[in-house]
């Protein structure tokens, strides 16, 4: 199912937010600071990182829900950044988003039918009876009942609401779905239901996912390739298996070891990284991870390492390698 | 030091009166905790784990919420029968609690030092201001907050989430409690900070011989940091026992389902990528509970009796019980 055709290519994507630090002092918050990756058709690219790493900003910038500051986003070889509003709106038919919080991302005053049908109306895909038919079959696809069409979001549990959000994202038959923490707000047993559903839908509708999460175990479970972000940069990018067995960057290693495991036998020795994520407004010079790294060298303080291929599509931004 | 029972909760029932009816949030919970125990209470949202903890401190939010039945004995005292003045001497002093959200559990208009001093004003009267200040600095040092002398003059918003949670831990430990209840202490922080906080709690536990109740929905966190586990579902205990027994040989279908529904880091890779086990359906609303086992509607191995009679406690192994008809 995983073809070799590239669906999306992101080159040097940057997103800076202006912040004011007083009347005369202005600064820019470099939420995403020059990242590049590709997404193949039918593939799931996981983006994992802690809060403030820029993973959500990346997801939104790809869909141009926020304007990127710099960089190129090539979707099926078309540069999205050069499209005007009308052109972009047409493109958005093919790219949809699933949000984290199923309680705030659905309008409580709209029926399920209106929520799921809204994209169909906006893009003038279907109306009337035909639209209702599409909505009903979408609801069945995501594991709800067709007669839920006239219910309101408050009649549903968190997991069911997330299914409504997924049905809405599927309505226009998109190629790409950006799922931003789609299971973080859900209970453990419901998480499994939604993760399995996303996987089923992927093969059924030939979807490509960008799967954003802070939960490493969820990302490893769902993704084909994984990018590890830290303070606006990708520190490591590799296939799921490669990253799982052979994480190279000290941050990735620490991240893996920090996940509490139920399996005693295979608990890795914990690497506890000292300190906290530095203030993104006053980043250290050199490597961003320098302040917390247990393996730092002199060079790390002076220059910023680039993301390099160390073999077999395993990219890492660290002076210890490559 | 002998290992006697520090806290025992017998047949606890907590009800909430709402417009829709009576919500049976906690429904006959039994817990027994010994000194030096680390007990994990796990379950999904709405299973009653937080309400059980709040009951121990008699902090169930009234007037809608009420402990309607049960007995809570702490250190020989009957918690539910104590006058309010006495329970205040226990709260924060002998039993203290760390809450989930460090953003909302500190008062934004007082400095860190101010809020910490309050504990000493309440529980160790007669201390001079300078002594209190020194004690606060000492505590912040204990929880590894850098530059504690300056921190006490800062306000909560000047601290990061992880630092705030450390302040909460410092506050909770100020009076050297016998029992520390940590309610989802790391849910609001990042995973690398979670590792730091958990290491801190277990270090402090070792040093001061405090018993710990860790309330969490994270099975991995529980497995690594507790020795006893109580698994709750919809206001009831469904299984309890030593943590390794419950994790490795869960008996109750809910316990099995829950443990199999998480992507398990550390399992071999192909297993990690397999389809996750699903528990069908959703957690029931706790109004007008059905007869019989409350998990029956979602249970893959439901029998006739499950829908008629509530399951009784069943011994699976030494110190390992489940409430199930199987």
CATH architectural category of chain A: 3-Layer(aba) Sandwich
How many domains is the backbone of chain A divided into? 1
Q: Tell me the fraction of residues in β-strands of chain B, as a range.
A: 25-35%
Low-confidence stretches of chain A: none
Q: What class, by secondary structure content of chain A? A: alpha/beta
Q: What is the average per-residue confidence, as pLDDT of chain B, rounded to a whole number?
A: 90
Principal-axis shape of chain B equals globular
Q: What is the CATH T-level topology of chain A?
A: Rossmann fold
Tell me about the largest β-sheet of chain A. Answer: 8 strands, mixed
Instruction: Find the CATH superfamily of chain B.
Output: P-loop containing nucleotide triphosphate hydrolases
In CATH terms, what is the architecture of chain B?
3-Layer(aba) Sandwich
The strand line-up of the biggest sheet of chain B is 6-7-8-3-9-10-12-11
pLDDT averaged over residues of chain A: 91
Instruction: Please tell me what the overall shape of chain A is.
Output: globular
Summarize the amount of helix of chain B as a percent range.
25-40%
- Along the chain, the helix and strand elements of chain B come as EEEHEEHEHHHHEHEHEEHHHEE
User: Helix segment count of chain B?
Assistant: 11
Helix content of chain A: 25-40%
Distance between the termini of chain A: 32 Å
**Count of DSSP strands of chain A:** 12
């Amino acid at each position: 199912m995983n073809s070799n055709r590239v669906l999306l290519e992101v080159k040097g994507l940057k997103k800076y937010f202006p912040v004011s630090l007083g009347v005369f002092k202005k600064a820019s918050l470099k939420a995403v600071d020059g990242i590049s990756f590709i997404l193949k058709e039918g593939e799931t690219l996981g983006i994992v990182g802690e809060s403030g790493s820029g993973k959500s900003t990346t997801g939104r910038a790809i869909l141009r829900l926020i304007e990127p500051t710099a960089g190129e986003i090539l979707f099926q070889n078309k540069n999205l950044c050069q499209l005007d509003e009308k052109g972009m709106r047409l493109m958005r038919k093919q790219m949809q988003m699933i949000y984290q919080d199923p309680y705030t991302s659905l309008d409580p005053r709209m029926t399920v039918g209106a929520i799921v049908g809204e994209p169909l109306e906006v893009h003038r895909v279907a109306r009337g009876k035909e639209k209702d038919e599409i909505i009903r079959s979408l609801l069945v696809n995501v594991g709800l009942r067709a007669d839920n069409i006239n219910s309101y979001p408050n009649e549903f549990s968190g997991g069911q609401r997330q299914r409504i959000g997924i049905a809405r994202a599927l309505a226009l038959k998109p190629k790409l779905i950006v799922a931003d923490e789609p299971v973080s707000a859900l209970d453990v047993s419901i998480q499994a239901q939604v993760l399995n559903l996303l996987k089923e839908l992927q093969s059924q509708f030939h979807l490509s996912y960008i799967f954003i999460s802070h939960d490493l175990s969820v990302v490893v479970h769902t993704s084909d390739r994984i990018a590890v972000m830290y303070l606006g940069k990708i520190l490591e990018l590799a296939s799921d298996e490669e990253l799982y067995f052979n994480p190279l960057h000290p941050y990735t290693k620490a991240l893996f070891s920090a996940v509490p495991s139920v399996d005693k036998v295979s608990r890795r020795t914990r690497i506890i990284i000292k300190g906290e994520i530095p203030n993104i407004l006053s980043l250290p010079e050199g490597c961003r991870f320098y302040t917390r790294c247990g393996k730092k060298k002199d060079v790390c303080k002076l220059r910023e390492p680039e993301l390099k291929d160390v073999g077999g599509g395993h990219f890492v931004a660290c002076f210890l390698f490559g | 030091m002998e290992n006697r029972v520090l806290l025992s909760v017998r047949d606890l029932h907590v009800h909430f009166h709402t417009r829709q009816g009576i919500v049976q949030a906690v429904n006959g919970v039994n817990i027994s905790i010994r000194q030096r125990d680390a007990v994990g209470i796990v379950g999904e949202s709405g299973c009653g784990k937080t309400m059980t903890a709040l009951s121990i401190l008699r902090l169930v939010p009234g007037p809608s919420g009420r402990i309607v039945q049960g007995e809570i004995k702490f250190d020989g005292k009957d918690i539910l029968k104590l006058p309010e003045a006495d329970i205040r001497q226990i709260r924060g002093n002998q039993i203290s609690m760390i809450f989930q959200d460090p953003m909302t559990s500190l008062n934004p208009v007082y400095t860190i030092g101010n809020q910490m001093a309050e504990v000493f004003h309440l529980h160790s009267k007669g201390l001079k201001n300078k002594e209190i200040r020194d004690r606060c600095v000492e505590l912040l040092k204990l929880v590894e907050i850098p530059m504690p002398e300056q921190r006490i003059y800062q306000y909560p918003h000047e601290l990061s989430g992880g630092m705030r949670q450390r302040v909460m831990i410092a506050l909770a430990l100020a009076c050297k409690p016998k029992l520390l209840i940590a309610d989802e202490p790391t849910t609001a922080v990042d995973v690398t900070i979670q590792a730091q906080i958990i290491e801190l709690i277990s270090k402090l536990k070792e040093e001061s011989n405090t018993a710990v109740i860790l309330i969490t929905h994270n099975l991995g966190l529980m497995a690594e940091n507790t020795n006893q586990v109580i698994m709750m579902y919809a206001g009831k205990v469904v299984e309890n026992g030593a943590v390794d027994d419950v994790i490795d040989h869960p008996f109750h279908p809910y316990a099995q389902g829950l443990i199999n529904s998480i992507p398990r880091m550390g399992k071999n890779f192909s297993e990690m990528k397999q389809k996750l086990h699903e528990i069908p359906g959703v957690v029931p609303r706790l109004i007008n509970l059905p007869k019989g086992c409350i998990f029956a509607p979602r249970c893959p191995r439901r029998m006739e009796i499950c829908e008629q009679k509530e399951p009784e406690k069943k011994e699976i192994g030494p110190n390992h019980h489940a409430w199930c008809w199987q």
